[in-house]
Write a structure and sequence with these properties.
alpha+beta; two-stranded antiparallel sheet; 6 strands; 4-stranded mixed sheet; 8 helices
């Protein structure tokens, strides 16, 4: 399921912005882009994401802005730099070598330049996590809104299948008489009406019509559709359950079509299958 959420928090010294985007996926796949200053928070953010975000291919991007642009600037140990430079200059004079850039060498010596962006204090961490939780809240709200629209679409299609089922029942009144008439006409044309054993004909007809009876399929299909609609009332994530129910709905629709032996009913079954395929496609986006 797609999702999007963004939020920012600041404390006068620093501003953190968090953006979360996701595409549909069967599992939770996290991709984090963090500035170096909060790289040590990656494990914490991953852990919280796994608790608060259900499946999806999720991209989380964090940006940081400091009010004082020099707050995280590297610092130079001037005394140590002078000491290194003096030692290098003394050695260069002894070797009579004047082509070496002594200042650059001294600047690259150990502990002369100290990076101040390696870690953040507790106050900064709190600003980051507040921005993260707000972004997750907006992200999940986005998903809930999309899910509500998706649920209404799925309900509408399941209800449409029930409507088609009622149309099948209306046509069933004429189905059996037509089957009887067709078989009887075939026998009369093939062997002649006077050569047909009516008792045997009635026995075979009862057996044949029993094989074409779709009462059980109609009952099960209606039950599956009602169960499908009822599943939306649960607060739990029911994507897999809805997928299983839709498979059962498909089995009953296919059997109904194979037994129909009636052009009108088969046309309705085709429309049922069209709606069911749309349901299955939409269920790929349901958690």
């Amino acid at each position: 399921m797609t999702g999007y959420g963004t939020a920012s928090q600041e404390n006068g010294k620093v501003k953190y912005s968090v953006e979360i985007k996701s595409l549909n996926s069967k599992f939770l796949e996290l991709n984090l882009r963090l500035p170096k200053v909060v790289s040590d928070k990656e494990l914490t953010l991953r852990t919280e994401c796994s608790k608060l975000i259900e499946r999806g291919k999720v991209n989380l991007n964090v940006t940081v802005e400091y009010t004082d642009q020099t707050a995280k600037a590297s610092s130079i140990n001037a005394d140590l730099l002078k000491k290194y430079y003096g030692q290098l200059q003394q050695i260069a004079n002894e070797l009579n070598d004047t082509n070496v850039n002594l200042f650059e060498l001294a600047l690259n010596m150990p502990e002369v330049v100290t990076n101040n962006d390696d870690t953040v204090d507790d106050e900064e961490s709190s600003v980051l996590m507040d921005a993260f939780y707000d972004a997750v809240k907006h992200f999940n709200t986005f998903r809930e809104d999309e899910g509500n629209v998706l649920a209404q679409d799925l309900k509408k299609r399941a209800e449409l299948i029930l409507t088609y089922l009622s149309e099948v029942e209306d046509l069933e009144v004429e189905r059996i008489p037509l089957i009887r008439q067709r078989i009887e006409q075939f026998l009369n044309d093939s062997v002649g009406k006077e050569n047909v054993d009516q008792n045997r004909f009635e026995q075979e007809l009862v057996y044949y019509i029993d094989k074409l009876d779709v009462t059980e399929e109609k009952v099960r299909l209606r039950s599956h559709c009602n169960y499908f609609l009822k599943a939306f009332d649960s607060a739990d994530s029911n994507g897999k359950k809805l997928g299983f129910i839709s498979q059962e709905m498909g089995r009953e629709i296919n059997t109904l079509g194979s037994k129909a032996n009636h052009a009108g009913i088969q046309q309705i079954v085709v429309r049922m299958k069209e709606e069911l395929e749309k349901i299955k496609e939409q269920l790929l986006n349901v958690l």
